[in-house]
Specification:
This is Pirin family protein. 4% of the residues lie in helices and 45% in strands. β25 and β26 form a beta hairpin.
Amino acid sequence: MSITEPMPGETLPPGAGAGADVEPTNVLLPGHDVPLGRYTTVRRLLPQRQLRTVGAWCFVDHFGPDDVANRPGMGIGPHPHTGLQTVTWLVHGEIRHLDSLGSDQLIRPGQLNVMTSGHGIAHSEYSPPEHPPTLHGLQLWVALPDSARSGPPGFAHHAELPVLTEPDYSVTVLVGELGGVRSPAVVHSPLLGAQLWLPDGGAARLPLAANFEHGLLVMSGAAEVGGVTLTPGALLYLGAGRRELAVEATGPTRLMLLGGEPFDESLVMWWNFVGRSHEEIAEARAAWAAGDPRFGRVRGDDSEPLPAPAMPTTRLKSRDRLGRTVG
């Protein structure tokens, strides 16, 4: 997963996303397709040019559902990360995670992988040789706040997650808390990630934290929220100030709700690194290219590490959460 290409964007209405005290909004932000590894194409929904983060969520890739019955499936060789957490969620399929800490973990639908890069980590992700015929899921990044981004790396696998069950729908809480149900996943800023599943369509009403901003995406099916029809391939930015979310679906629909307190730290995001300055990113890239022990080597993976792309000819700029240049 990397960020080097230009990002699409849609102008947000005045005031939208400017802080936790703004009025709620409904802004549909189309994603764009990005090739991932040799065999997978993802729909990148975040960052957008004029909306870089939702809470501390700074990266959202939706992949599948893809028919991988006679294909290798996911194949992403050893690559580095800094300044972020990766959050992996599957609806269909299996992915094997390997990293420089020695983690070797197969993730299946309904389970959660959270990897914390801190100052530096390397990992790889593959579909096992014998894998289910369909691959479908999300890869998300969480920007680490300054207080945590230079800390040690870590990895956690959660085989079971708490579920809020209602007659017509269920909510699996990946990160944070919703409706009195709290995830065991450790994050470093106030955050929410929750899957809403309406197996027969119908309506759902979810309580929200008014001091959070939220975004919503459809993984399968279609839903209507505030008069906006949402289908796979777009992110609906909901702004902040909401205390409730009402969703209506005409058939089986799976959605992911993302939220958090607006992330006020400006970021430089390039390739697989999240930093604060051009110099910091350039240093991380040089360390990876030199095989610096900062990242270690992915244990159990003898394939060649992915080479870092060349640094851009212009200086990387630090941007705030709405894409405005800082400094």
